[in-house]
Please model this.
Amino acid sequence: MENILVLGMGKVGTLVGLLLNRTFKVTGMDNQEPHYNIKLPFEVILGEVRDPHLMKSEMAKYDAVVSALPYFLNQPIAQLAHDLGVHYFDLTEDVQTTQFIQGLSKTSKKILAPQCGLAPGLIGIIGKDLTLSFDKLRDIELRVGALPRYPNGLLAYSFTWSPHGVINEYLNDAEAIHNGKKKWVPSLEGFEYINIEGQEFEAFTTSGGLGTLCDTFEGKVDTLNYKTIRYPGHGKLMKFLMYELILKEDKEALVRMLSTAKPPVEEDVVYVYAVVEGWKRNTLSRKEYFNTFYPIEIEGKKWRAISWTTAASLVAVVEMVATQKLPQKGFLKQEEIPFDKFLETPTGSLFLT
Model:
């Protein structure tokens, strides 16, 4: 793998291009100028990603395509990657998009790897890693929060990544395993309270965060769920907006409203928390992972925590495929990625700093 096309030069896509450019020959593509007004060390071409003829001719020039586009644009890109025999990676949290790509993978000649971000993505890699020391599993509980470090207002939030993606995961039902059976549960439900180093948070169910983990662990655990961490009160207000004001019927209006009211902040924080319970030599045990990530400097620029953790998760997977440490064709489940090998990649090592 040498030549990589990165689609979407937004807050995350731009950093994906910068990180990949350290090892590969990168070209960026978007229908508008890159989000950040900085000099990029790779070419960016302007083009409409919704144009199938343009995309077919462009994608054929590359060994791999990385989509940092909104989730609703990914299916036709994945289809073209499949048809052209090009490696495909994306950040989608959308369940339907992932299922579509799983269908394509049955006849794919290259790797199809959706869900390579933070959640789904890194959290599934960590969760699976925690299970390896158990003889028998009982529960797997995964939690991730990307939050403003200094919240204000009742909503206590800032849209540091795609508002469309946030609303999508709040609206769609989520997969879970409950009482040993895989089922669908509503998002914005299952509230719980978490205390992290003296700070109170809430967590509630959102869609997409588990990726393909329910398929992997069905019949092997009693409980498996994913919840998003937020400051207390956020979930209740979002339920009010979406269901009492019925803004779920006008998602574009909701996106405009929230983007205007809660623009991105520079100082954010990402919490990653995973718990696995089960038996080791007939003794019930519990194993946990917790880490907090803050903005860091990469290539002379300070990057938000949500941006670099998401981008680095994806780029580390690309590096593993390029060095043949992962399969070279078919569908890649995130939980198939060894966490120790992930951390050994040039970009995965950022999670150790």
